[in-house]
Amino acid sequence: MTRISNDKEDYFTYDSAVPSAFTRFVVESSGQLKQYVWGRNFTSWTLFWTRPTQQCQVYAFCGVASICNLQDEPLCVCIDGFGPKHQRDWDLGDHSGGCVRKTPLNCTNNAVGEVDKFRTLPNMQYPSNPESWPSGNLQECESLCLANCSCDAFAYDNGCLIWRRDHMFNLQQLLEAERVGKDIHVRVASSEIPSIEVGSGFLTLSAAGLLLLVILWRRSNNASAAAAADDKYEPRDDNSLSFFNYKELKTATKNFSEKLGEGGFGAVYKGTLLNSTLIAVKQLKSLQQSEKQFMAEVKTIGTIQHINLVRLRGFSVESSKRFLVYEYMPNGSLESLLFHQTTATTLSWRFRYQIAAGSARGLAYLHEDCRDCIIHCDIKPDNILLDSEYNPKVADLGLAKIFGREFSRVLTTMRGTRGYLAPEWISGEAITPKADVFSYGMLLCEIISGRRNTDSSEVDSYFPFELASAVSRGGDVASLLDDKLEGNADMEEVGRACRVACWCIQDNEKDRPTMRQVVQILDGVCEVNTPAVPRFLERYAEGSSAATMNYLQGMSSSKE
Q1: Can you list the pairs that 533-537 forms with residues at least 24 positions away whose Cβ atoms lie under 8 Å?
Q2: CATH class of 102-192
Q3: Cα distance between residue 189 and residue 193, in whole Å
Q4: What is residue 558's predicted lDDT score, i.e. its pLDDT?
């Protein structure tokens, strides 16, 4: 990438690293920058990359006083008490004009009793650019906002935040299941929230009656839950899937309060069933499948059982909500152990090699031993989970099948995924199990080095290039090993892993081994000769540093 900047113009030029593919960048009317690719056998330009990844992240996309909600159509809705400023534009899908109040505020009449009120919007992402005012609690913050006619909304979050008139941009409704948002209180005229006047005697009787109903309901609910607990939550011997309703998962996860992680498919939460079994609950987002299609695909995935694959325990489907319930992995992901641990807890070579071999077995099972070949399409350290004994289990298997046509979009919007994509994802060739082999090779590079493939800004320090160069010339593989291991490793295993990694990332998929062959090589059952340096790495080494590293960090980086 080269930047041209002078008195008359300012622009970037890009050099394509894949000669058989063309690419173009477009700033669309949506406000998003999109990269399109045209490769061999393409019939049209294909969307490959988008920034911002979500429409709601485009600044002021919905205009002022409007809520953006990715789960609804249309995306933009006016806050209650507001209406479109330009109705015709709004009807045509242009929401940038935002919304205006239906009823003017009573700020100037507060002294005679017409006090403005606040409508609470729960689980929201705050609008941009709030002002911070000194306040000790929620009530003080509300009073400060009421006393200032220019204050349109406030929130109390370890301090008083306020938004002035016409400054409420980028207000976003978050998923109910995530519950990671905050309450914001929007100022409206008192007439927008009519009061209900009732006699004190009636109010007392109503409150007493309501309390009695709540007590009876809780007793009944607790008794039913206790009676059904063993039957509903007991692990089944036949490995069949369990169906959970949304309320059960909400209870198990304590209202989705402990998030384990989040990727392009959705967020994952820790949960505990009534029999104390730990689970991981993944909420799938942006899924367009019908309930019938979803259940059919999930049941197919549920039949897949292997020691190196994360077990699917059950699922939930209610209206637009889709959840998958997995066994819980107490040692988290390989990504966290490789890149976020201290020296005192460095993952030993013995465990690294065990993880590499076990992950390969899980993939070989998906590719060759299932009734239908399953291509994972998203192999990376985040999707290698570890049980209590550090045995690896491949996660998210089958999600490419569930997401169908939307999967390529999910891949290119997930943080880190592009660091492991095979060249055929860009060139437009058919995706086969060998795409997983390439991703596995990139994963193996990081297992060996203990660092992300593109921690360096120089081509010569790009670890896959270092590894391939050292292997091809028969160099000392000990120098490739993670420094934190201080040389404590079986060098025969290290050399074997380096050769396998280099074979896996060859340009032509026909030159890559199958995952079954990878398992055999790592197990020492068969030998493998010295591979050549992949051609795409040679081209990078010969090219300009700026253009090369720009592309490496686009296709082969674990940090978008």
Answers
A1: 533/465, 533/468, 533/469, 533/472, 533/502, 534/464, 534/468, 534/502, 534/505, 534/506, 534/507, 535/507, 536/17, 536/423, 536/507, 537/462, 537/464, 537/465, 537/468
A2: alpha beta
A3: 8
A4: 36
For residue 527, the one-letter residue type is E
Three-state SS for 443-456 is HHHHHHHCCCCCCC
According to the model, what pLDDT value does residue 450 have?
Answer: 92
CA distance 198 to 400: 57
Q: 535-542 and 545-555 helices cross at what angle (nearest 10)?
A: 140
**How far lies 265's CA from each of 380, 398, 406, in Å?**
14, 12, 10
User: How far lies 429's CA from each of 21, 38, 254, 420, in Å?
Assistant: 11, 11, 45, 16
- The one catalytic residue among 378, 382, 436, 482: 378
Per-residue pLDDT, 378: 85
Peptide bond into 464 cis (omega under 30): no
What are the distances in angstroms from CA 239 to CA 157, 271, 299?
Answer: 45, 20, 11
> What pLDDT is attached to residue 287?
62
Please state the domain extents for the chain. Answer: 102-192, 242-327, 334-555
282 is in an annotated binding site: yes
Q: Give me the pLDDT at residue 357, please.
A: 95
Active site residue 378: yes
- Supply the pTM of this predicted model: 0.60
Residues of the chain with pLDDT under 70: 1, 15-20, 41, 108-113, 175-180, 194-240, 263-264, 286-290, 341-344, 398, 400-419, 428, 454-460, 540-560
pLDDT at residue 544, rounded to an integer? 44
Catalogue the E-assigned strands of 174-234: 182-188
Q: What's the confidence (pLDDT) of residue 498?
A: 95
State both tokens at 77: 């809705």
Fold classification of 242-327 is Phosphorylase Kinase; domain 1 (3.30.200)
Does the structural domain 334-555 have CATH classification 1.10.260.40? no
